[in-house]
Amino acid sequence: MMIRAIKLPRRRLAALGGVVVFVCALVLAVTALGGEPTAAAGETVSPKGIRTAEDRLAYLEAHGWLVSKEPLAVEELLIPKEMGSEYDDYLALQSSQGFDLAKYAGRTVKRYTYQILNYPTGEQGVQVSLLIYKNTVVAADVLSPALNGFIHGLARPEA
To answer: How does pLDDT run across 57-66, given as a tens digit for each residue?
Structure first.
């Protein structure tokens, strides 16, 4: 066994101690505030490189959603080549999130649907769906399948 001693000047040791204290305080502050892992205001989470189940879960977590580990459904969908007026609201929703679903007209995508476990109002049964084409999220929505349900984008609503 070899023991190695390192001599640090007091100034550097004090500076290092200050950094450690700052990092610990930051971690405690985030934990105390109930640090939900969400994207910061103005920060975007890349929809590219979503290859695995872990990537999908991390993408949703980055948007603040805690979801079931296993999807409720995995489906292959054909995006229609021509989208009529019945798609206007959905295309507008996707456009508001920065997705251009019309660009994928005529293509087959995979839809992964998960149950949301932390919807802000406490409502149960709320689902989130990701439409993925070649490892890229091309559309996403949060919906309640209840009789008087709703649909909105990935952004978390206020409680």
So the answer is: 999 999 999 9
pLDDT at 31: 34
Give CA–CA dist 130/86, Å, rounded. 20
Separation CA 110–CA 58 (nearest Å): 17
Please enumerate in sequence order all residues whose Cβ is within 8 A of that of 106, keeping only pairs 6 or more positions apart, or say none: 78, 79, 80, 81
- The span from the CA of 54 to the CA of 59, in Å, is 9
Please provide the size of the chain in residues: 159
What's at 50, amino acid-wise?
I
Q: Is 16 exposed, middle or buried (0-12, 13-18, 19+ CB in 10 A)?
A: exposed
Domain ranges (residues) in the chain: 9-38, 53-152
